[in-house]
Amino acid sequence: RWLQQHEYVEKLNMHGILSASAGQEQLLTELLVTHAKIPILIGELISVEIWKHKVFPVLCRLEDFKPRSTFPIYVVLHHEASIINLLETVFFYKEICESAEDSILDLIDYCHRKLTLLAARSTTAQAGTSAVPVPPQELQKQAETMEFEISLKALSVLRFIIDQVESLPLSALTRMLNTHNLPCLLVELVEHCPWSCWEAGKLKKFENGTWHVVPPEDQVKMTKLDGQVWLALLNLLLSPECQRKYRFDGFNKSQLLKLRAFLTDVLIDQLPNLVEMQRFLSYLAVTEPAPPKKDLILEQVPAIWDHILKKNSGKWEAIAKHQVKHAFSPTEEELKLQARRWAQTYSLDMMEALAPDKPRCRVCGVEAAKRCSRCRNEWYCTRACQVQHWQKHKPACNLMA
Protein backbone atom coordinates (compact mmCIF):
# COMPACT_ATOMS: atom_id res chain seq x y z
CA ARG A 1 0.00 0.00 0.00
CA TRP A 2 2.81 2.40 0.85
CA LEU A 3 4.64 1.73 -2.43
CA GLN A 4 1.42 2.28 -4.33
CA GLN A 5 0.93 5.58 -2.52
CA HIS A 6 4.48 6.57 -3.47
CA GLU A 7 3.74 5.79 -7.12
CA TYR A 8 0.73 8.13 -6.97
CA VAL A 9 2.84 10.89 -5.42
CA GLU A 10 5.59 10.37 -7.99
CA LYS A 11 3.16 10.56 -10.90
CA LEU A 12 1.56 13.68 -9.41
CA ASN A 13 5.02 15.19 -9.04
CA MET A 14 5.96 14.51 -12.66
CA HIS A 15 2.56 15.70 -13.87
CA GLY A 16 2.96 18.88 -11.82
CA ILE A 17 6.36 19.65 -13.37
CA LEU A 18 5.07 19.06 -16.90
CA SER A 19 1.93 21.13 -16.26
CA ALA A 20 3.98 23.99 -14.77
CA SER A 21 6.36 23.99 -17.74
CA ALA A 22 3.32 24.30 -20.04
CA GLY A 23 1.58 26.84 -17.79
CA GLN A 24 -1.36 24.50 -17.23
CA GLU A 25 -1.12 23.57 -13.54
CA GLN A 26 -4.54 25.04 -12.64
CA LEU A 27 -6.31 21.68 -12.98
CA LEU A 28 -3.85 19.96 -10.64
CA THR A 29 -4.10 22.70 -8.00
CA GLU A 30 -7.91 22.63 -8.18
CA LEU A 31 -7.95 18.87 -7.63
CA LEU A 32 -5.52 19.06 -4.71
CA VAL A 33 -7.66 21.76 -3.06
CA THR A 34 -11.02 20.11 -3.81
CA HIS A 35 -9.97 16.75 -2.38
CA ALA A 36 -8.09 18.29 0.60
CA LYS A 37 -4.79 16.58 -0.27
CA ILE A 38 -2.34 19.27 0.88
CA PRO A 39 -2.62 18.47 4.64
CA ILE A 40 -2.18 14.76 3.76
CA LEU A 41 0.97 15.49 1.74
CA ILE A 42 2.37 17.61 4.59
CA GLY A 43 1.63 14.77 7.03
CA GLU A 44 3.53 12.31 4.81
CA LEU A 45 6.43 14.76 4.54
CA ILE A 46 6.71 15.00 8.33
CA SER A 47 6.38 11.23 8.84
CA VAL A 48 9.19 10.45 6.36
CA GLU A 49 11.41 13.09 7.99
CA ILE A 50 10.85 11.49 11.40
CA TRP A 51 11.53 8.04 9.92
CA LYS A 52 14.86 9.30 8.55
CA HIS A 53 15.94 10.70 11.92
CA LYS A 54 14.55 8.03 14.25
CA VAL A 55 14.25 4.70 12.40
CA PHE A 56 16.83 4.88 9.58
CA PRO A 57 19.91 5.17 11.90
CA VAL A 58 18.68 2.17 13.94
CA LEU A 59 18.04 0.25 10.73
CA CYS A 60 21.63 0.71 9.54
CA ARG A 61 22.99 -0.69 12.84
CA LEU A 62 20.94 -3.91 12.78
CA GLU A 63 22.91 -7.09 12.06
CA ASP A 64 20.26 -8.55 9.75
CA PHE A 65 20.31 -5.46 7.51
CA LYS A 66 21.14 -6.91 4.07
CA PRO A 67 22.36 -5.38 0.78
CA ARG A 68 19.04 -6.40 -0.78
CA SER A 69 17.30 -4.05 1.66
CA THR A 70 18.70 -0.97 -0.07
CA PHE A 71 16.21 -0.91 -2.97
CA PRO A 72 13.05 -0.18 -0.95
CA ILE A 73 14.98 2.17 1.34
CA TYR A 74 16.03 4.28 -1.65
CA VAL A 75 12.31 4.57 -2.39
CA VAL A 76 11.61 5.90 1.12
CA LEU A 77 14.46 8.43 0.91
CA HIS A 78 13.18 9.56 -2.48
CA HIS A 79 9.61 9.92 -1.20
CA GLU A 80 10.39 13.06 0.82
CA ALA A 81 12.09 14.64 -2.20
CA SER A 82 9.06 13.88 -4.40
CA ILE A 83 6.60 15.46 -1.96
CA ILE A 84 8.60 18.64 -1.36
CA ASN A 85 9.12 18.98 -5.11
CA LEU A 86 5.37 18.68 -5.69
CA LEU A 87 4.67 21.25 -2.96
CA GLU A 88 7.23 23.61 -4.51
CA THR A 89 5.38 23.34 -7.83
CA VAL A 90 1.90 24.10 -6.45
CA PHE A 91 2.49 26.39 -3.44
CA PHE A 92 2.84 29.36 -5.76
CA TYR A 93 -0.98 29.55 -5.65
CA LYS A 94 -2.84 31.31 -2.85
CA GLU A 95 -5.60 28.67 -2.70
CA ILE A 96 -3.03 25.93 -2.08
CA CYS A 97 -1.63 27.83 0.92
CA GLU A 98 -5.14 28.38 2.27
CA SER A 99 -6.10 24.71 1.79
CA ALA A 100 -3.19 23.64 4.04
CA GLU A 101 -5.14 25.11 6.98
CA ASP A 102 -3.55 24.35 10.37
CA SER A 103 -1.02 21.92 8.88
CA ILE A 104 0.79 24.97 7.47
CA LEU A 105 2.38 25.34 10.93
CA ASP A 106 3.99 21.91 10.58
CA LEU A 107 5.20 22.86 7.11
CA ILE A 108 6.71 26.10 8.44
CA ASP A 109 8.51 24.12 11.16
CA TYR A 110 9.70 21.61 8.54
CA CYS A 111 11.10 24.39 6.33
CA HIS A 112 12.78 26.00 9.35
CA ARG A 113 14.54 22.71 10.21
CA LYS A 114 15.75 22.35 6.61
CA LEU A 115 16.99 25.94 6.41
CA THR A 116 18.81 25.55 9.73
CA LEU A 117 20.65 22.53 8.28
CA LEU A 118 21.39 24.56 5.17
CA ALA A 119 22.82 27.47 7.17
CA ALA A 120 24.99 25.08 9.20
CA ARG A 121 26.32 23.37 6.08
CA SER A 122 29.97 24.02 5.24
CA THR A 123 30.31 26.27 2.20
CA THR A 124 32.90 23.89 0.77
CA ALA A 125 30.66 20.83 1.01
CA GLN A 126 29.20 19.57 -2.22
CA ALA A 127 26.46 17.15 -3.07
CA GLY A 128 27.82 13.90 -4.44
CA THR A 129 27.62 10.16 -4.34
CA SER A 130 29.73 7.82 -2.29
CA ALA A 131 32.07 5.23 -3.78
CA VAL A 132 31.89 3.13 -0.62
CA PRO A 133 30.26 -0.19 -1.57
CA VAL A 134 28.95 -1.00 1.94
CA PRO A 135 25.17 -0.38 1.85
CA PRO A 136 24.70 1.50 5.18
CA GLN A 137 27.49 4.00 4.38
CA GLU A 138 26.29 4.35 0.81
CA LEU A 139 22.75 5.01 2.01
CA GLN A 140 23.94 7.55 4.56
CA LYS A 141 25.79 9.43 1.82
CA GLN A 142 22.75 9.25 -0.43
CA ALA A 143 20.61 10.61 2.40
CA GLU A 144 23.02 13.55 2.92
CA THR A 145 22.97 14.37 -0.79
CA MET A 146 19.19 14.32 -0.91
CA GLU A 147 18.98 16.33 2.33
CA PHE A 148 20.86 19.19 0.69
CA GLU A 149 18.63 19.23 -2.39
CA ILE A 150 15.45 18.89 -0.28
CA SER A 151 16.57 21.87 1.85
CA LEU A 152 16.85 23.99 -1.29
CA LYS A 153 13.29 23.01 -2.25
CA ALA A 154 12.12 23.88 1.27
CA LEU A 155 13.59 27.36 0.79
CA SER A 156 11.36 27.87 -2.26
CA VAL A 157 8.28 26.54 -0.44
CA LEU A 158 8.92 28.88 2.51
CA ARG A 159 9.26 31.84 0.19
CA PHE A 160 5.83 31.03 -1.35
CA ILE A 161 4.34 30.73 2.14
CA ILE A 162 5.75 34.15 3.06
CA ASP A 163 4.25 35.60 -0.14
CA GLN A 164 0.78 34.53 1.09
CA VAL A 165 1.26 35.41 4.75
CA GLU A 166 -1.98 37.42 4.89
CA SER A 167 -3.99 34.29 4.03
CA LEU A 168 -2.41 32.11 6.73
CA PRO A 169 -3.67 31.28 10.25
CA LEU A 170 -2.93 34.00 12.82
CA SER A 171 -0.22 31.96 14.53
CA ALA A 172 1.76 31.36 11.32
CA LEU A 173 3.33 34.82 11.21
CA THR A 174 4.15 34.80 14.94
CA ARG A 175 5.78 31.39 14.52
CA MET A 176 7.91 32.56 11.60
CA LEU A 177 9.00 35.82 13.22
CA ASN A 178 9.36 35.14 16.93
CA THR A 179 9.42 31.36 17.45
CA HIS A 180 11.88 30.67 14.61
CA ASN A 181 13.27 34.18 13.93
CA LEU A 182 13.29 33.52 10.19
CA PRO A 183 14.63 37.00 9.25
CA CYS A 184 17.92 36.28 11.05
CA LEU A 185 18.07 32.76 9.58
CA LEU A 186 17.64 34.20 6.08
CA VAL A 187 20.44 36.70 6.80
CA GLU A 188 22.67 33.70 7.63
CA LEU A 189 21.86 32.21 4.22
CA VAL A 190 22.72 35.48 2.46
CA GLU A 191 25.98 35.70 4.39
CA HIS A 192 27.21 32.13 3.91
CA CYS A 193 25.42 31.14 0.65
CA PRO A 194 25.64 27.33 1.00
CA TRP A 195 24.81 26.78 -2.69
CA SER A 196 28.11 28.32 -3.82
CA CYS A 197 31.74 27.47 -3.00
CA TRP A 198 35.29 28.01 -4.20
CA GLU A 199 37.21 25.01 -5.45
CA ALA A 200 40.72 25.16 -6.96
CA GLY A 201 40.37 28.92 -7.41
CA LYS A 202 37.06 28.62 -9.30
CA LEU A 203 33.62 29.64 -8.11
CA LYS A 204 31.05 26.84 -8.28
CA LYS A 205 27.31 27.18 -7.78
CA PHE A 206 24.55 24.63 -7.36
CA GLU A 207 21.75 25.09 -9.89
CA ASN A 208 19.24 22.73 -11.50
CA GLY A 209 20.46 19.75 -9.49
CA THR A 210 24.21 20.01 -10.24
CA TRP A 211 27.32 21.96 -9.28
CA HIS A 212 28.85 23.94 -12.15
CA VAL A 213 31.75 26.37 -12.57
CA VAL A 214 30.64 30.00 -12.92
CA PRO A 215 32.54 32.05 -15.54
CA PRO A 216 34.15 35.26 -14.14
CA GLU A 217 31.71 37.50 -16.02
CA ASP A 218 28.71 35.78 -14.34
CA GLN A 219 30.01 35.67 -10.77
CA VAL A 220 27.97 38.71 -9.68
CA LYS A 221 24.82 37.37 -11.34
CA MET A 222 22.00 36.50 -8.95
CA THR A 223 20.92 32.84 -9.01
CA LYS A 224 17.35 31.66 -8.49
CA LEU A 225 18.25 30.54 -4.96
CA ASP A 226 19.71 33.97 -4.13
CA GLY A 227 16.51 35.51 -5.46
CA GLN A 228 14.34 33.29 -3.25
CA VAL A 229 16.16 34.44 -0.10
CA TRP A 230 16.02 38.14 -1.01
CA LEU A 231 12.33 37.98 -1.94
CA ALA A 232 11.51 36.20 1.33
CA LEU A 233 13.38 38.87 3.30
CA LEU A 234 11.73 41.64 1.31
CA ASN A 235 8.21 40.35 2.00
CA LEU A 236 8.91 39.70 5.68
CA LEU A 237 10.65 42.94 6.58
CA LEU A 238 8.51 45.35 4.59
CA SER A 239 5.11 43.97 5.55
CA PRO A 240 3.42 46.35 8.03
CA GLU A 241 2.06 43.39 10.01
CA CYS A 242 5.55 41.86 10.26
CA GLN A 243 7.07 45.15 11.38
CA ARG A 244 4.36 45.39 14.06
CA LYS A 245 5.02 41.88 15.43
CA TYR A 246 8.79 41.43 15.02
CA ARG A 247 11.14 42.10 17.93
CA PHE A 248 13.76 44.59 16.67
CA ASP A 249 16.02 44.12 19.68
CA GLY A 250 19.77 44.75 19.64
CA PHE A 251 20.74 41.32 18.30
CA ASN A 252 18.07 41.16 15.57
CA LYS A 253 18.81 44.70 14.50
CA SER A 254 22.57 44.06 14.20
CA GLN A 255 21.94 40.90 12.17
CA LEU A 256 19.57 42.64 9.76
CA LEU A 257 21.96 45.55 9.24
CA LYS A 258 24.52 43.07 7.87
CA LEU A 259 22.38 42.99 4.73
CA ARG A 260 23.49 46.53 3.80
CA ALA A 261 26.92 45.22 2.79
CA PHE A 262 25.31 42.91 0.22
CA LEU A 263 22.90 45.48 -1.28
CA THR A 264 25.25 46.64 -4.04
CA ASP A 265 24.19 48.54 -7.16
CA VAL A 266 24.77 45.40 -9.23
CA LEU A 267 22.38 43.38 -7.03
CA ILE A 268 19.72 46.11 -7.01
CA ASP A 269 19.89 46.36 -10.81
CA GLN A 270 18.92 42.68 -10.96
CA LEU A 271 16.11 43.00 -8.36
CA PRO A 272 14.99 46.67 -8.27
CA ASN A 273 12.52 46.05 -5.41
CA LEU A 274 15.53 45.83 -3.09
CA VAL A 275 15.72 49.64 -3.15
CA GLU A 276 12.82 49.58 -0.67
CA MET A 277 14.77 47.26 1.63
CA GLN A 278 17.81 49.51 1.37
CA ARG A 279 15.69 52.44 2.55
CA PHE A 280 14.18 50.42 5.37
CA LEU A 281 17.61 49.32 6.63
CA SER A 282 18.92 52.90 6.50
CA TYR A 283 15.93 53.99 8.58
CA LEU A 284 16.44 51.07 10.98
CA ALA A 285 20.10 52.02 11.48
CA VAL A 286 19.27 55.49 12.85
CA THR A 287 16.06 54.82 14.79
CA GLU A 288 14.80 52.64 17.58
CA PRO A 289 11.65 50.86 16.35
CA ALA A 290 8.70 50.69 18.70
CA PRO A 291 8.53 47.48 20.77
CA PRO A 292 6.19 44.86 19.32
CA LYS A 293 2.58 45.30 20.26
CA LYS A 294 1.52 42.74 22.85
CA ASP A 295 -1.58 40.93 21.71
CA LEU A 296 -3.63 38.37 23.56
CA ILE A 297 -1.46 35.24 23.45
CA LEU A 298 -3.56 32.44 22.02
CA GLU A 299 -1.23 30.46 19.82
CA GLN A 300 -1.82 27.33 17.75
CA VAL A 301 0.89 24.69 17.84
CA PRO A 302 1.82 22.23 15.08
CA ALA A 303 0.17 18.89 15.74
CA ILE A 304 1.58 16.36 13.24
CA TRP A 305 5.22 16.23 14.41
CA ASP A 306 4.32 16.04 18.12
CA HIS A 307 1.60 13.43 17.54
CA ILE A 308 3.92 11.05 15.67
CA LEU A 309 6.74 11.44 18.20
CA LYS A 310 4.48 10.88 21.21
CA LYS A 311 2.69 7.92 19.63
CA ASN A 312 5.95 6.10 18.84
CA SER A 313 8.15 7.20 21.72
CA GLY A 314 10.44 4.34 22.82
CA LYS A 315 9.35 2.14 19.89
CA TRP A 316 11.89 3.16 17.23
CA GLU A 317 14.08 0.04 17.53
CA ALA A 318 11.04 -2.24 17.46
CA ILE A 319 9.77 -0.40 14.37
CA ALA A 320 13.16 -0.80 12.67
CA LYS A 321 13.29 -4.53 13.40
CA HIS A 322 9.72 -4.98 12.15
CA GLN A 323 10.51 -3.07 8.94
CA VAL A 324 13.71 -5.05 8.27
CA LYS A 325 11.71 -8.25 8.49
CA HIS A 326 8.55 -7.25 6.66
CA ALA A 327 9.44 -4.32 4.37
CA PHE A 328 13.18 -4.18 3.70
CA SER A 329 14.02 -7.85 3.09
CA PRO A 330 12.08 -8.56 -0.10
CA THR A 331 12.26 -11.88 -1.92
CA GLU A 332 13.59 -12.12 -5.49
CA GLU A 333 10.01 -12.22 -6.77
CA GLU A 334 9.04 -9.13 -4.78
CA LEU A 335 12.10 -7.27 -6.06
CA LYS A 336 11.20 -8.09 -9.66
CA LEU A 337 7.61 -6.94 -9.09
CA GLN A 338 8.80 -3.66 -7.55
CA ALA A 339 11.25 -3.12 -10.41
CA ARG A 340 8.45 -3.61 -12.98
CA ARG A 341 6.24 -1.13 -11.12
CA TRP A 342 9.04 1.42 -11.02
CA ALA A 343 9.73 0.96 -14.73
CA GLN A 344 6.07 1.76 -15.41
CA THR A 345 6.16 4.80 -13.12
CA TYR A 346 9.32 6.21 -14.70
CA SER A 347 8.47 5.81 -18.37
CA LEU A 348 11.18 6.98 -20.77
CA ASP A 349 8.85 9.41 -22.53
CA MET A 350 7.95 11.05 -19.22
CA MET A 351 11.58 11.33 -18.13
CA GLU A 352 12.60 12.85 -21.47
CA ALA A 353 9.83 15.44 -21.19
CA LEU A 354 11.24 16.44 -17.77
CA ALA A 355 14.86 16.62 -18.97
CA PRO A 356 16.14 20.24 -19.22
CA ASP A 357 18.42 19.51 -22.23
CA LYS A 358 17.69 18.11 -25.68
CA PRO A 359 19.19 14.67 -26.44
CA ARG A 360 22.56 14.64 -28.23
CA CYS A 361 23.94 12.31 -30.89
CA ARG A 362 26.11 9.57 -29.37
CA VAL A 363 28.66 9.93 -32.19
CA CYS A 364 29.02 13.62 -33.10
CA GLY A 365 27.28 15.36 -30.19
CA VAL A 366 24.84 17.50 -32.19
CA GLU A 367 21.15 17.70 -31.26
CA ALA A 368 19.49 14.36 -32.07
CA ALA A 369 15.94 13.44 -33.09
CA LYS A 370 16.36 9.71 -33.77
CA ARG A 371 16.96 6.90 -31.28
CA CYS A 372 17.75 3.21 -31.33
CA SER A 373 14.34 1.60 -31.86
CA ARG A 374 15.43 -1.64 -30.18
CA CYS A 375 16.73 -0.50 -26.78
CA ARG A 376 15.54 3.16 -26.97
CA ASN A 377 18.63 4.14 -24.98
CA GLU A 378 20.95 5.84 -27.52
CA TRP A 379 20.29 8.91 -29.68
CA TYR A 380 21.61 9.76 -33.15
CA CYS A 381 21.29 12.70 -35.53
CA THR A 382 21.35 10.58 -38.72
CA ARG A 383 21.27 6.94 -39.74
CA ALA A 384 24.93 7.24 -40.81
CA CYS A 385 25.95 7.97 -37.19
CA GLN A 386 23.84 5.06 -35.94
CA VAL A 387 25.47 2.63 -38.38
CA GLN A 388 28.93 3.94 -37.50
CA HIS A 389 28.27 3.36 -33.76
CA TRP A 390 26.51 -0.02 -34.10
CA GLN A 391 29.48 -2.30 -33.41
CA LYS A 392 30.19 -0.50 -30.12
CA HIS A 393 26.53 -0.23 -29.19
CA LYS A 394 25.51 -3.80 -30.11
CA PRO A 395 26.49 -5.57 -26.81
CA ALA A 396 24.71 -2.95 -24.66
CA CYS A 397 21.73 -2.93 -27.01
CA ASN A 398 21.34 -6.71 -26.70
CA LEU A 399 21.53 -6.45 -22.93
CA MET A 400 19.02 -3.59 -22.69
CA ALA A 401 16.62 -5.23 -25.14
Automatic annotation (TrEMBL):
Coiled coil: none
GO cellular component: a single term: centriolar satellite
Domain MYND-type, first and last residues per copy: 361-397
Keywords: Cell membrane, Cytoplasm, Cytoskeleton, Membrane, Metal-binding, Zinc, Zinc-finger
Keyword hit for Cell membrane: yes
GO MF annotations in UniProt: zinc ion binding
Cited Pfam families: zf-MYND
UniProt main location, coarse: membrane
Biological process (GO), any one: inner dynein arm assembly
Subcellular location: Apical cell membrane; Cytoplasm, Cytoskeleton, Microtubule organizing center, Centrosome, Centriolar satellite; Dynein axonemal particle
SUPFAM superfamilies xref list: HIT/MYND zinc finger-like
Record has Zinc as a keyword: yes
Function recorded in the entry: Plays a role in axonemal structure organization and motility. Involved in axonemal pre-assembly of inner and outer dynein arms (IDA and ODA, respectively) for proper axoneme building for cilia motility. May act by indirectly regulating transcription of dynein proteins.
Family, as annotated: Belongs to the ZMYND10 family.
Name by which UniProt lists this protein: Zinc finger MYND domain-containing protein 10
Species assigned in the record: Menura novaehollandiae
Lineage: Eukaryota, Metazoa, Chordata, Craniata, Vertebrata
